[in-house]
Design the sequence.
């Protein structure tokens, strides 16, 4: 069993791994990607058992140290789109620290706010039954939500 965690923040990655590891077989291997580019690369190399996906991830292949340089508010949707376009069947849980995201609109360089409900609907429309749910990473409750989704996937 191979589990890919797409997360750019070290502390959040560790938190997620601490919850997920005890729920998976001891032989399960956990891998990390910190950008959408490296995640797509990993996804194309071999089959995976589960994807734990951050929504706000870097879209460049290397670290970017400037404010918002290369950072995409909805970079995780690029991964969902990849799964859809290449017909990759992979159970996926979105884990995000935000309730709303900025999304660019084409007219007049405007942005709009996109809520978690729309993110979930988009993921469900693209990857169907492989979309297992969204976890709102916050001070309380998120660990139980993630445990529940992983346990339902394992059942």
Sequence:
């Amino acid at each position: 069993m191979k589990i890919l965690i797409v997360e750019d923040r070290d502390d959040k990655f560790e938190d997620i791994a601490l919850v997920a590891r005890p729920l998976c077989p001891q032989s399960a291997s956990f891998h990390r990607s910190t950008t959408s580019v490296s995640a797509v690369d990993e996804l194309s190399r071999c089959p995976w058992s589960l994807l734990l996906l951050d929504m706000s991830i870097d879209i460049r292949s290397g670290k970017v140290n400037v404010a918002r340089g290369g950072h995409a508010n909805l970079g995780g949707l690029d991964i969902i789109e990849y799964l859809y376009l290449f017909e990759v069947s992979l159970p996926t849980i979105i884990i995000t620290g935000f309730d709303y995201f900025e999304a660019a609109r084409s007219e007049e360089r405007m942005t709009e706010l996109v809520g978690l409900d729309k993110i979930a609907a988009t993921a469900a429309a693209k990857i169907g039954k492989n979309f297992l749910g969204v976890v709102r990473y916050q001070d309380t409750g998120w660990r139980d939500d993630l445990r529940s989704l992983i346990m339902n996937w394992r059942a």
Notes: Helices lie at 10-20, 36-45, 75-85, 116-127, 142-154. The beta strands are 2-6, 29-33, 50-54, 57-58, 71-72, 92-96, 100-104, 111-115, 131-136.
